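Reviewers of the previous submission asked for a worked example of the structure-prediction workflow described in the proposal, so we include one complete record here. The input consisted solely of the amino acid sequence. No template or homolog information was supplied to the procedure at any stage.
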Amino acid sequence: MSGSAYRSSRGVTLVELMVVVSIVGILVVLSLKGFKADPAGSDARKVAALMSTAYRQAVGGGTVRSDVAVTAGTTARARVEITVDATTGFNMVAVWKQQELAPPDSSSNWVFVTAEYMQPDVTIFAVDNQSVLAPTGSVAASATAPSTATPIDKNYFPDGTADAFTVYVEKRDATGTRYRVVGLPLAPAPQVFVDW
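From that input alone, the workflow returned the following structure tokens.
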């Protein structure tokens, strides 16, 4: 047996094995860092899911009776409401649906469907480019007062249309990625975009 044939069949050296394990370890660390939880992105997707829920409630509920629409002041069948919880200071996004009382009663009630709180380190800092909340350290904190008071509502109608609505989400310390959730008047599915 020649010397070169013997070397090719003897296997892997300890040094070669250590190099391969080191490279695999570096790749694992880099991939885990890429999958790190992004609370603002998670909450932006929550807002989008609630907007989709309101759309389904509006379309599935049918037309509001004409006598009720006059009483309730709107023909909207569902709405998304953004508020700031007075006790925690956290944003809450809720879905409500309009439910008529049985005839001959011509009134209706807004009935709660579902809601989500934003995580403690996440805020909705603007809706439709108007400041909503000015948390400490946020870009929105430069404003002396919010230009839009909460609650802010987005209406959804039985024919599948809705109010145009853009929600801006960021971490409270304004250090992370910002997200924009866009709901268009004729599009049932809201879109989530990564912002600057």
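The longest strand covers residues 91-100. We consider this example representative of the routine output the project will generate in years two and three.
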